[in-house]
Design goal:
With 222 residues, this protein is mostly helical. It has a domain of 110 residues: Cytochrome Bc1 Complex, Chain D, domain 2 (Orthogonal Bundle), CATH 1.10.760.10. The protein is 52% helix and 0% strand. It contains eleven helices and no strands. Helix 6 crosses helix 8. The protein binds heme C.
Length: 222
């Protein structure tokens, strides 16, 4: 009797499973799934932004970026460097030179460090580690300085480099932070169209341009 009960339950379960899986199959047959040609959501701008990458990276305006950089994130990032570099004053050489004060220092000049000939050749051309050269070096050390002993690769992300360099700058650097570039603050097209209008003398200019010119010039007078 109990055996019969078990069979009934087993039969019912099997039938249910058949219906469930059968339904799935059936739905697949009815609503044939066409995979999209391109995976993911189509966002028009996303492609441009990701393609920009480090290859055609816009120059970094250090005067704008450094003051708003995330120094704490930069400090956290350099955990990756600490197997080879000290960051404390007087910390000395590990595999690489002490990086305390490296921003604004002469490349290849930390006492007691046996630099590669590649780094010394670079130092012969480049008197200081400024922001751009540090950024270019960290983007891909071995590609930037042929024969460097620094086997670490790489600080690929632009914002990571900005944060790391902002942190390095806090370590006893005497290199001043440049003034922000004014063009970077305003959207380029507005600045471009505003400049000739306000710069041109009003004589002979169409009324609209004069109006635009004086409107643009007004805030500047204050
Ligand atoms: C595997 C070890 C290693 C790691 C990890 C490493 N470096 Fe280096 N680094 C070196 C060596 C070695 C040199 C000297 C290179 C040479 O002589 O060519 C160097 C040189 C440098 C220099 C030039 C210093 C000078 O005195 O001219 C900077 C700047 C630098 N590293 C920054 C970093 C930063 C920032 C990180 C982490 C994001 C990092 N390094 C990670 C080994 C390392």
């Amino acid at each position: 009797m109990s055996g019969l009960g078990f069979n009934k339950i087993a039969g019912a379960t099997l039938a249910t499973l058949l219906v469930i899986f059968g339904l799935g199959e059936l739905t697949n047959i009815i609503f044939k799934y066409e995979p999209p040609a391109k995976q993911g959501y189509a966002i028009a701008v996303a492609a441009d932004a990701s393609d920009a990458g480090p290859v055609v990276e816009a120059p970094i305006d250090w005067g704008t970026e450094l003051p708003k950089a995330d120094v704490a994130a930069g400090q956290a990032f350099v955990a990756k460097c600490q197997s080879c570099h000290n960051f404390a004053a007087g910390g000395g050489v590990i595999t690489g030179p002490d990086l305390y004060g490296v921003v604004g220092r002469k490349p290849g000049a930390f006492p007691g460090m046996a630099y590669s000939s590649g780094m010394l050749a670079f130092a012969a051309k480049q008197p200081v580690w400024d922001y751009d050269h540090l950024s270019d070096f960290l983007t891909n050390p071995q590609k930037y300085i042929d024969g460097t002993k620094m086997t670490f690769c790489c600080v690929k992300q632009r914002q990571d480099r900005i944060n790391v360099i902002a942190y390095l700058h806090t370590l006893g650097s005497n290199l001043p932070i440049p003034a922000p570039k004014p063009v970077a603050a305003a959207p380029a097209p507005a600045a471009a169209s505003g400049a000739p209008a306000s710069g041109a003398p009003a004589s002979g200019a169409p009324a609209a341009a004069t109006a635009a010119g004086s409107a643009a010039a007004a805030p500047a007078k204050k």
